[in-house]
Every structure is written in structure tokens, then in C-alpha cells.
Amino acid sequence: MGENMRIDARWIPAFVSVALFTSVGCGWGQESHRLESPDGKNVVLVEVEDGKLVYSIDRENRKLILPSGLGFEFRGAPPMGSGLVISEVSRNSVDEAWEQPWGEVRYVRDHHNELRVSATETDGPGRSFAVVFRAFDDGIAFRYELPEQANLDEFEILDELTEFQFAEDPKAWWIPANDPTHRYELLYRHSPLSTMPEVHTPLTLVTLEGLHLVIHEANLVDYAGMNLTASMGRRLSVTLPAWADGVKVRGRTPFVTPWRTIQVAESAADLQPSLLGLNLNPPSAIEDMSWIDPMKYIGIWWSLHINLETWGSGPDHGATTENARRYIDFAADNGFGGVLVEGWNLGWDGNWMENADLFSFTEPYPDYDLEALADHATERGVTLIGHNETSMGVENYERQIEDAFSLYQRLGIGALKTGYVGDETADGHAHHGQYMVRHWRRVIELAARHGIMLNVHEPIKDTGERRTWPNMMTREGARGMEYNAWAGDGGNPPEHETILYFTRMISGPMDYTPGVFDILLASSPDGPRSPESARVRTTLAKQLALYVVLYSPLQMASDLPENYEGQPAFQFIRDVPVDWEVSATIGGRIGDFVVVLRKDRDGPDWYIGAITDENARSLEVPLSFLPEGESFVAEIYADGDGAHWLDDPLAIEISEREVHSQTTLTVDLAPGGGQAIRIRPAT
Ligand code: NOJ
What confidence tier does 12 reach under pLDDT thresholds 50, 70, 90? Predict the structure, then answer.
């Protein structure tokens, strides 16, 4: 089977300097207002129909979103959304580029046209609100502004009335939101949009014609996370997780909501991660970013998940001084920047998921010499990565957090993994509601003040906050590698990561924790796992390819150090960067395969990662992105003869060949397989 693909040079952004221009216009009393993206392809129409403010979206004369409603329901006040007239309109245009301190691309272009429409109630309280629309070439965004006014001061939102009324019934790739226990950690399913339950965003949709759309949100600061519920056929309505008393959002005017975004791409290969959302977040609030440093890390972690060691005290305690020293030395010897240690702090004994209040975030177990290990790590040029599992005991955490972060700062612990295993807070506030969103922001800001980079597990989804707070490096927020360790779960199927790339990863980096070499889990106490139980469902080469496909600025090599010793394939993990100049999807189909190209930000090397589902594939990848007339060497980590995720996952073939811009590589992928390629200058 062959799948031919061509690299699309558009995704190698060459813009370094672009003009900034701004124009402002005003219109009064018109009932219909049109906004176009700079390339004229995405068009928004805003109008009042029967006293209701509605918007619709077309792309090149194709109807995407039919007139859809906007507004709010409040506690103790009439709903806002009917009996309206348009009272003010203004416009703006922006074209500017900015540089990321780290990221999947170095430069981001923010090129959009803006339309701001204010609507006022003609009777009743006479309140006003505005909706600001931005049209980009790759999508549309809008948010509400509630200005300060006499009849709207403090408010409690019971419902946001935003709708997305689809012109057709696209195919949707979704995870359910009505299952609070999983915190986004479910396998993606697909179905017509009209038959979905309440789902999380990002929500990826494919129209009959093959247009790819992603509905998501940006700049979630002080609001509840947005879910979407299909109602009345093709209409999606916004649904919001609640405070314990049922209120969705508390606020006071002046107030702005997060942006609601609809990314639009002509095909899967045109669908690029996250830059639209970054443009909708304010620039960095951190002036000196020199301490923020993407890195690869290892950790006392996988051993805990395969039951080889324990978080809690006892003979198998993983976080001992001796063990952590061994990890620090391995990290230093192999060029890793950090060592995560879980189970270092008091509180893990007994059922830690139910004993949230017992966690101390400053006191180590007696067999873990925190100060000496921090010193040893510093001496060896590595940082310890702290671990704070809260089990959703956020009040317990907040009581200790200032002391804890001061301690970590004094010890030179420059990165922290946090965790929020649990369904809701002790007081009953939803995991993804406004109460928790406020908490997560507080932690980001406090961490920034203490020079700490963050990796959040069981997080709120990524809405681009890393632009403002570049210490917010990565997060979980999907089913990661750990599901392959948990007996009884069944693990992640071979197609899993080919779906993640086009769904969860659209929102931003993920701490997926790739790099398991002991695919059969022979290191677990009960020996190699059978195909029926949880185990890693990929080939070894695919584990390597995931370093290119699944972007994370803190990227783990998750297996035990002893499983990397003497393995030639480990060289790829040592080489692969975590900070990129450019990134591009160069081919793919959701749930089938994906090929990703990235260029090192700090050197001349290019990397390609290709992964497939349970089907073998042969892909033609032209290297036309390479500078003409120069010679390169491709170091190829391919599935070996007979490789198969089920029968022979370890077969790998490592080879080198000379390549140049005219070369087309044939990339053969085994069932559940992958290929990882480093392309370096020949001299
Ligand atoms: C779940 C996290 O995803 C995992 O990485 C961590 O080891 C455990 N919680 C314990 O905090």
C-alpha cells in the first residue's frame, strides 16, 4: 500500500519582519456587519434577528456555521440575549510577528481583522454587551465583553447561550465531558456531530468535503472551561462545569470571557497546532525568561506504575537517596536536563487518592535526603523536578504552597510536576470549573515568581496561557503512556497517538511520556505481559517517532535507566531536541497515520517522525525542504523485518544514508509502527 505525499512549503514560515498596520472604522445602526479574514476566505456575518444577536461563518461561499445565538442567563437577573439592537460597531486590523521564548515554531504571525459589535437591550434593564470577532486566515475567534454599567455589576452566570449551528452534520472526534472521573483521559471516539454526548474541546470535526475544523477556546483566565453539547441535531451549545452551588461563573463588570475559537483547515495536513490560540493570549508577563529552559527528563516514575517500586514508604520505596542519585547520574551522563522524583514527600502511605489532606509538600520521607540530592543534582548540571500530587486537596495545597515553592527555589529545583487526581474539590467544585481555573492560574503565577517551570497533570486544558506565562511548559490532559502500565485497563490502542495529534495536541504541548523500550513490560514484577493485558501497543521505532510527533518542551524518557543501557536506539532520544525553529504536519489522516517534520531551533538538523495505526503503510516523503545543493546524512530508525506491535515490537533497523533536496524517502511502517529520522549536514 502506498500513500504519496508532498511537503507543503507554506508551513516553513519565512516571515521574520512583517509590517504592522492598524485601521479603525465605525458604523452605527446597521443591522448586519461583515468581517473577512486577511485572505478573504473566512467570513463572519453579525446581525440582529428577531431582537437576538446572531453570527454566522462562511468559508469561500461555503456555509460552515448558520446564524447562531449569543448571550447569557444569570442568577437573580433576566437573561441577556433578546430585545437587542446593535448600538456600536468598530473595526481594527493587525499584522505583526512575535518570537516565542520556546516552542514548536520560533516566530508566530498574528494577522487578523477585528469587528466589535455592541448590543443593547431596548427594554427591561437596558444592559449592553459587546462581542469581539477576529478573523484569521486559519480561523475565527470571538469573545464577550461585559462593560461596567448601572444594571450589571456583580453577576452570576448560570448558562452561556453561545451556539454553533452547523450547516451539515460533520464527523466529530470527541471525548465525553459527562464523565467527571477521567479528566480528559479517555480514548477518542468518532461519530456524526449530531449524536455526540456533552464533549470536551478541542473538538475536531471533518466536513463531507474534507474541511477540518477545531472548536476550542483561548485565554481561559477567570471562567469555567467550555464543554459542548449537541442539541437539536446539528446545533452545539456551550455548557460550563459548575461551582458547588450550581453557579457556572462569578464575575463583576468590566469583564471579558475567554475566546471561543473555530480553526479551519482545508485538510488534516493543513491543521497546525495551537498558534491561533497563542495569538489570543497577552504577551509574556515574565520579563527575564532566561531561566525557562526546555529539557528532556527521566524520573522515578515508570517503576511506580509497573509496580516495581512504590510511592509510599516500605522496602520497595522508589524515592530513596541512593536510587535518586543513580537517576541523577544517569541523566547527567546522557544529557538530560532533569530528574523527576515521585513519592519523595510525606503523605503517600495508605490510599493517597482519598487522603489528600495528609500530603506535605515540604517534608521528605526519612530515606530521601532532599538537600543532599538537590546539591548533587546542581553539581552534575541537572535539576530535580519536584512532584506535588494534591489528590484535588487544593485547600491543603494552597496552605503550603508559598513555603513549598520558597523551599524549592532555595534548593535550585527549577521544575515541578503537579497532580490533581480526584473528581472535584472537597467542597464540591468541578475539576474544570472556575474555582479550579483560578487555582491553576494562582499556581502558575506563584511558580513564575519562584523561578519554577510547570508540568501539570490532571490539568485544565491548554488555552494558550504559555504565551503570557512561559513557565507553564506542558501538561497531561489526555490518556498518556501510563495507561499502558495499568493492568486491567487494556492500554492505548495502536491508533491512539494518530488521533491525539489531530485532537488534543491542537491545543498545545502534552507530557505524554514516550520512550518505553521494554515494550512487553518484562521489568514489571510479574514479568512480560500477555497481549490481552495492559502493555505498550507500539513498536520500538514508534516510541522514538513519538518524540517528533508529540510536542512537549519538557519531554520525558519514561523507561527505567537500565532499559536504555546498551541500546543503540537510545541514541535517538539523546539527540532529539525539544525546542523547534519550525514544525509542519506533512501528511496524515486522523486515526490512521501522521508524518511530522521539525527543525532544531539551535542547530541545522531536521527531524521526521512518522507513525501509523494497526495497519502497515509505505509513505513517500520528498525532502524538498532541505537547502538545495547541500548534502545531508539521514539517520533512520525504522521498524525491522517482521516488526509488529503485537508479535514482534522490538525489531528495529538503524541505518544511515546520504540525502539531499531531490531525495524522496520511502518510509515503511509496520503495523502499530513508526519511523524516526534525524537529518544532519554531511560535514
Ligand atoms: C497521575 C499522573 O498522571 C501520574 O503521572 C502520576 O504518577 C500519578 N498521578 C501520581 O501523582
Answer: very low
